[in-house]
Each structure stands twice: as C-alpha cells, then as structure tokens.
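Input.
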Amino acid sequence: MTFDSRSLPSFIDEEKIESVIAATAKPDAVRVREILAKAREAKGLDADETATLLQLKNDELDHELFTTAKAVKQKIYGSRMVLFAPLYITNECYNRCAYCGFNAENGDLQRRTLSEDEIRAEVEVLERLGHKRLLLVYGEHPRLDADWMAKTIQVVYDTVSEKSGEIRRVNINCAPQSVEGFKKLHDVSIGTYQCFQETYHQATYQKAHLGGPKKDYLWRLYAMHRAMEAGIDDVGMGPLLGLYDHKFEILAMMQHAADLEKHFGVGPHTISFPRLEPALNAEMAFNPPYPITDHEFKRMVAVLRLAVPYTGLILSTRENAQMRRELLELGVSQISAGSRTYPGAYSDPSYDRPDVQQFCVGDNRSLDEVIAELVSLGYLPSWCTACYRLGRTGEHFMELAKKGFIQEFCHPNALLTFNEYLHDYASDVTRESGKVLVEHELQECAEGRRGMVAERLKRIDAGERDLYI
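Output.
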C-alpha cells in the first residue's frame, strides 16, 4: 500500500475520542489506582486509561501518578538524558499559520536561507560547544525541495572541526514530502524525521492554517506513513499544545501511533509536546485558544510516560529552566540545550532577536550550564548515536528496548560520549563534577559490561574518540 494519495480517509475518530473523554471525566480513585498498578509493569495504557489519568482532580492521586511515572522512567531510562540542538536552515515559508512567526504574510520578519558556507559556520559553532546531535529545521517553500534539503544535510555531516567535532546524527523537522522525496532524505542518512500535526482536531486545524500547502490536513496526517514507506525507521510526532484541548490531542496522537503500528509494526520513536509561545505578529501565539496550565502540563507528561513507556519524550527550550527541571523526573528523556530559533543564530552575537526567531525561548542557558545542572541532579548527559549507525532503529529498537536494551547499550554509550564532552568541551567546574559522576555511573553498569566500558573510558582519556557499543 502506498500513502502518496491525497484521497486517503482520516484515521482519527474524533467522535470516539470525545466519547472517551466524557466517559472518564470523573475518575474514581479505585480505578485510578488499578491503572497505576498496571502502568508500573511498563506495558503501556489504552485510551480509556490514558483519558482517566489526564482528568485527575485530586492532589493525592496526582502525587501517586507522579511517583509512578518517576519509577517507570527510572526503570527504563535510568539516569540517562539525551541532548541535542535545533539548527534553523531557513525561515522562508509559504504557509499562513496563525500561531507562527514564520507566517508567509508576516512582512516584519527578516527572511533568510543559509548558504552552504553559512551552514558550515553554524555547525562549527555547535561542534565547538560539544554538540553531536542536531535537529535541522526548515520552513516550507516550493523552491526548497527534498533535493536541496539533502544537500544541506550532507553539508552538516561533512563539516568537521577541531577535537572530536563532527555531527554524528542529523534529525530533521521539515514539511511533509512525497514518498520519493522522503527516499532522498533517507539516502543521506537522516536519523529521525519529525513532523507535528499541530492539532488533530480538523475544525481547529482549518482555523489555524489559513493558506499554503500545510492547509491540507490529510496530507500532513499521512506524512509519517510516507516517511516509513520510504524506509525512514524512526519518526517523531506531537501536538502543539494550546490550539485545542490537550486531552483530545493526546488521545488522537495515540490513534496516530496505533495506525503506524498497524501498517509498519512500530509507532513513533519520539513524541514532543511544545506549548504555544509568543511569536512575532502571531496573535494566536500570544493568546492560545486552549491554554494548558503548568500543573496540567506536568500531569500530561507523566501520563505520556506511562502510556508509551518506551517512546522517547522530547522537551524543548520553550519551557523555562524550572519547568524543565521538574519535567525531567516525570518522563522526559531528551532535551534541547543552548537553543536558538532562527537561521544564523549561533553565529550571531546579538542572538536575542524577536524580529527573526520562530518563537520565544524560555531557557537561554548555554549547553555547559544545562549539563552542569544535569550532573548536579544526578543525570547522565548523552550524545549517543550508536543505534542509528548499527541499525538498531524502528521496530528492532523497540523490541530490544522492551528487553532491557536501553540499560545494556544506551547507558554505557552515554558514559562514553559524556567522557568525550568532559575532555574536549566542559568548563573546569563541569569537568570536575562530571568525573565524579562518571565513576559513579561506571559502577552502575551491568557487571558483564563494566570492564569493557572502563577500558573504553581509558582509551578516551588517552585521546581516542567515537567509541561505542
């Protein structure tokens, strides 16, 4: 079956979702505790169970939910925390999205598409900071097609600076492509393809998307299917919170994941949950139709961790430092750090520029500052890319993850990449505290792995780089 057709039906059952939300509107404490007991087994939740937990109105039950989410996250991911940075390649866009600063009708936005030399300059800055994983972000414009994007991706991979400075994995966030277009991106070795439906509620979608290719709800809805049909194993999805009821969006996203599993045997590799943030000349971004409170947001993240225990949960720098800190223990497994949200931002000394950025960043700390805090909280920063390079992706990754694979491979590889960072990029303060963490985490390695990891850590100490299991 091919998903290139624009006449495919929607698999989002809005009536069913609204019915589930209504039926679970008054959660019973006994039922909630039954669901939490099931969740501790890390086998996921169904729609009724997810909706029930999303609608808690009891502080005691919220506390039990948060405690369960912490336990499940620790069981599966341990102390590991993956880091990346977004790199905006262009802000040229043909769409008219009511919430976005890149709106085609925003005449006050300075448009820019990076040249190959400018891309290299941005990558070199990021490499000097210690980044190894990038998310390339593109606007949607007819002349910026898959062939052009593939060239920019290759430029990133080919840019190597001092020390261990090369980008080892490029993930991308771009407009939906045809299967043929996705094959061109697959051929240049992208990692995860990320695309947000923004809102799964069709009436709201039409109000928020006023023109351009993005107005086609179904073409966007099937983007992940076409990407996987083209051979891209790992995809990342998520709603833009604030456009519609977050409970509806989460349940619809679960239907989206289920349809991918039906056709390809695996759902999303990652889920993101950005909240609307102010953007230049975007009234909807300043006044979200369905704002989600901080407490609702934390509850939602905890529920997601229980609903999809082996799926990566990504937290962006839209959130402030305090909120990010609180969400780490509730389920987040990947975070961006030192983010800037416009083309050329990392080479720009006056980077705080609302006239060019896509949205306001809530956490402006540097990568090293974020890492220092992670270490102080007992988290192990990771830039591991071994799975992509060894073919442990898609359905294969999920099968291994459910057998304890993440602790068996990802934890040792996190240690190795973190040791590289400490030698090559860390500030003196971060290096000293990081060394203590490395020694501690080495003892947490499985006994059968510990000797191998210790030997490779010593090889990194002696100057070798890019070692992984």
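The CA atoms of residues 78 and 407 lie 7 Å apart.
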